[in-house]
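To fix ideas at the outset, we first show an illustrative case, written as a sequence plus integers encoding its fold:
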Amino acid sequence: MRFGRVNVVDAAGTVLAHSMRVGGRTFRKGRVLSAADVEALKHEKCDAVVGARLDPGDVTEDEAAAAAAQALAGEGVRVGAPFTGRCNVFAAIDGLLLVRAPDVDRFNAVDEALTVATLSAPRAVREGEMLATIKVIPFAVPRVVLDRALACLGAEPPIRPIRPIRVQAFEPMKAALIQTRLPATKETVLDKTSRVLRARIEALGGWVVSDTRCEHVPGAVAEAVGCAFDSGAGIVLIVGASAIVDRRDIVPAGVVAAGGEVLHLGMPVDPGNLLLLARCRGYPVLGLPGCARSPALNGLDLVLERLAAGLEVGPRDIMAMGVGGLLKETAARSQPRRGSHESAPARAPNVSALVLAAGRSTRMGSVNKLLAPLGGRAMVRAVVDALAGSSVRSVVVVTGHEADRVEESLAGTGAHLVHNPEYRQGLSGSIRAGLAALPESTEAAVICLGDMPLVTSTHIDRLAAAFDPAEGREICVPVFEGKRGNPVLFARRFFDEIAGVRGDVGARHLIGEYEEYVCEVAMDDRAVLVDVDSPQALRDIGGGP
């Protein structure tokens, strides 16, 4: 890759290194200059630009990031669409994030151009949570460098490679709770402890099969442990009326009396030091530290998460938890904790799609173009199916003209249908109706036209991947060969302004008014420029009777 100042006459294909404003028009950083761009720059007397030109054998930043993400991502995860050399990896299921740190380190050590950052692991994650981000530093990397990085990840026979980043699904965990009491023990404390522990188990996909309270003596503990396993428990959690301070203390003595064995007492995690790991009838038994009565993150969580994911936990596993085991909050180091005080994990933005399917197709004559057959299905069905296969969380379709027939064509898609009775008054009314029907959790909406059936889930995913309010990318516009097309993604902050538009117009005027928030998303084909507004246009894409 060559980088530096390039004469405008030779700049076609150059990737801009910095945003520039010329003649009232903004050319964004990362834009690949087209022949039309070059002519526009020449017209404005611009002599040169600063950017990168790819050499034969170079791989673009997005292609490299996507390839690296696919090689790193294993079971239980999904890979987002690449944008500006970044590709994010998300949890596809609830489970335990597992990362092979040596593989990640080897990948990062190959070349400064390729980087991957992950969450610390193992840790419990939720579906949609961001697990890792792959960032390619320059605009392109040599193919040999990318191949070397991918090769360092290796493969593990005999069946298939175990990828470095994966999520192990939580297995149904049937737990029994046992609490011991002394004369001074308050029932309200035991009640609260039960609620907290039930919430812990249920958050990991399990449930409590029994909840027992007994005297703080070995015999009572032994009897409660036996009853717990007789009730079908696969794990027993014991909260003593006083902390376990020795292997021969009340709780471990009770476990041994029930036929179990003590495997380990204590852990290098704070809070959580006084945790007991034991086994009885082939199942784990945990003697809990006092901090387990609190919903705050503690050593119990680290053990439960592994057990819920079906992983064995032994003494060596416990002793290896010291690095990262300081969980308590101090004045010098604030550790976000689980529950109401935990900071929200990074995740994929909640993007919805709004499909405008209310028009009368006046330029198509007597034919409702949205119902015109295309590949064995109605045109509007092709649009909605593409959205259903994308990363958007929900799809809202606004109907109007021939609403019954349009709704019938969309049966089984899962889209939410809303009717605009004033569809004859113009496009703006349909947009208002659609915005009002979006889920409250929607952070951005892709406004789609029902007559653009060539747009695929890949196009939609690229728009969603580009959306990032923190970096000022709040209006995402697809571009092919320098021409802006549809659909367009708008952040929620623009919804009220869009809803205020009247007449047969959409929201494209906002692109010009808020140019500083506009992000142009390059597409590989002209599908984002193709709308079907005539019988000939329909025939051109292979549609019609």
Q: What stands out?
A: Confidence is low (pLDDT under 50) at residues 156-160, 330-342. The two ends are 50 Å apart (CA to CA). The chain is about 25% helix and 25% strand.
